[in-house]
Description:
The complex is a heterodimer. Chain A is α/β, with parallel strands linked by helices. Chain A is built from 16 helices and twelve strands. Chain A is globular and about 65 Å long. By secondary structure, chain B is α/β, with parallel strands linked by helices. Chain B is 42% helix and 14% strand. Chain B has 16 helices and 14 strands. In chain B, strand 5 (155-159), helix 6 (164-174) and strand 6 (178-182) form a beta-alpha-beta unit. In chain B, helix 1 packs across helix 16 (416-431), helix 10 packs across helix 14 (383-395) and helix 13 (349-355) crosses helix 15 (397-411). Chain B is globular, with a radius of gyration of 22 Å. At the A-B interface, helix 12 and helix 16 of A face strand 10, helix 11, strand 11 and helix 12 of B.
Amino acid sequence: MLYIIFYFQVHQPFRVKNFNVLKTKSTVEYFDDSLNAAIFNKVAEKCYLPANALFKELIERSDGRFKVSYSLTGTFIEQAKKFRPEVLHSFLDLVKTGAVELLNETYYHSLSSIFDLDEFIEEIEEHAEIIKKEFGMLPTTFRNTELIYFDKISDLLFATMPQIKTILIEGADKILKGESPLYPRVSANHAHLLLLKHYKLSDDIAFRFSDKSWDEYPLTPKKYLSWIKDLMLIEKTGKNLYLNLFMDYETFGEHQWAETGIFDFIKEFVLLALKEKNLQFLWPSEVKDTLNYTPTPISVPNPTSWADTERDLSAWLSNPLQWNAIKTCYELIKKAKDQKRYDLLSILKKLSTSDHFYYMCIKYFQDGDVHKYFSPYSSPEEIYRYYMNILAEIETQLEG
Amino acid sequence: MKVLMLTWEYPPFIVGGLGMACYGLFKALAEKGVKIYMILPTKEKVFFEISSGWEADFPVAKSHYQKQLKPLPLKFYQIGYLAPEGAYLDTLRLFSYQPENTINFLEEKKPLTPIFEEVLKRIENLLNKKNHTLSRVQRYLQNVLEVAKHLEVDLIHAHDWMTYPAGLFLKHLLQKPLVAHVHATEFDRAIGYGHPVVHEIEYLGLNLADRVIAVSNYTAQVIKEHYKVPEEKIRVLYNAFTVYTKEPKKTKKFKSPVILFLGRLTPQKGPKIFLEIAKKILRQYPKKVRFLIAGAGEMERELMFEAASEGFGTQVLFTGFLTRQEVEEALSLADIVVMPSVSEPFGIVALEAMYFGCALIISKQSGASEILENAYKVDFWDVDKIVNIIVDLLKHPEKLKNLQQKTKEEVKTITWDIRAEELIKIYDELLIN
């Protein structure tokens, strides 16, 4: 049997606005509400609403045999409430079908796992809290920001978050060392089941689907299904296989526009897959109950992620602007906690969202283009300026 | 006395360093009874008449027929920095004009430096290059010729290279003396290399003018050495301070002392030297200090990377491009202003900084340093010396406060009124015969 596990990431950052310390102090607002609202509404119309409708239809048509999992960040939920409540209702409708698993992650989609472990745990708790409050669910599967994972994360979650049983990670070549991502693994400390993203088949949809220079263009549902069926050939002893298709939810309608046929593709693919005897859709949390063998441990001493071709932290931490910005942000978070300045803390936490540092990235070749596409700022210098000026102003408030 | 002023900037239309200097100077001249006609780079064929102080504040556009025009909206052409292209170098060799050194200033009759037809043809030729900036200069030239033929003036006064072609043509047409005012040369703007066409226009304008006014001795030296202008033709007229109506306020936004760099982030202004100073102080000085790098420019990324890689957090802060209001805000929260310019004809920011009561450290390579008493004057490259001065001031707040008080007082004595008197004397030299 081959199980297909879909997980979609749903996230929006609070983008900062054009700010410098010399602006007269009429505004205390650091985030660009109009920009954030405009982007949220654009994505809602192109992706969230039509994609939710499509997946709900597929769930209903298949009597719940089609299953998906989502991770909704805390900042996304806040923005949905603020800018477009119908988006949150639409997710709630989807969850009510009973065919959706919601995952746990850091509330702010931050890099706290690298910089501040106390803050990391705090944010996971905050996130579990809001998922419980809004959707009535207690997640048991964890995904870290951009699938960042290293052994210590498992140790820490084991010690502090006993309900977490499963963690999603990137099926990076450097940790798999030639082994297949279709077999779930256990963490080095044997505490968590690890599901590895199949990055080739995930990225075929997420990145290459509409790429006309790609050899396989156009990708048809039939072709894609045949590739999946071919995967089963590697297993001769009857072990269950798990195909982890993890991607940004914006793949549907935003990164790949509706005109590319992405909605028709995914719909037809799911309907075809449902007809296959050897294929089944599954939630991440169900993997441990369907395993018919003991998974082998895997050690990940250095952080891996799903970002860029390096699949490491370089998307957020490869130049001095990023290092200085993020280092200063976490210093101020500590200071604000010490002084119990909760008003400033909530701003600082929003400033710790990884996207801000992603916009500051200066990498060449393909990835630089991707960064540019996703950034609302004209240059890394521009966002760095706004960001550091905001931190400077918050810093002075913490000086008493 | 009626003077035709040719300038590219004037507030409120375009406000830059040149515009502010022209405003201060014209106003003071008008108050001394000089009648000023001014032609700006407008799309419309208009001139401005300034015969009293208030008219300098609110210049009104007029056409030839004395019909009043609405002052706004006028369409202006801004001018950008002209980047050199190799192609111009060849044409430069074809033409070289030797200035006449034969004028004897002891003679009673002082003829105007003659302008030959070839020179005018050459200028036309230079401006005919397919270049955005040069074509604007040419349009300005045509505008000026058309507007000015109806005006009766005693003297033509042209400010910086963009107006020199118009000045030369007009001098030829009206046979009136030409004063070429140098607020900055291409050597300052480009550090070393500049645009050959701009250099040539400057060369012709300065040599064929009847007087050359430099904003400092430093600039006079450049004019003498690089443009071969005879010394007896050059006069130094320092800039002065244009007093605002409002008394400047000091704001205390940051708890720690603020050290400010204010200017474009280009090699000319020395922002990299400022960063070196910041690095040395932040590494050694035990208390918190904030360095503000205020301005935009092509060196931003380089500077940002260097500052960030030191991990100074928000202690070295970049603000990007500033509005006029933000410039004033920057000056009002700064304790010490450092101007490490590598080459600066004058540097009017120095006076503004003093007006806002900032202690000032200025490079000896800045013209303003020649007239300032209560400022530290240091070679731009002497990082250690500047560091020592700043640390000394930080350690002795009384000394700092004292100095700040003195700068504030001193700047009040540097007025356009005095400059206007000096300028009228220069005009008189030309008009006596």
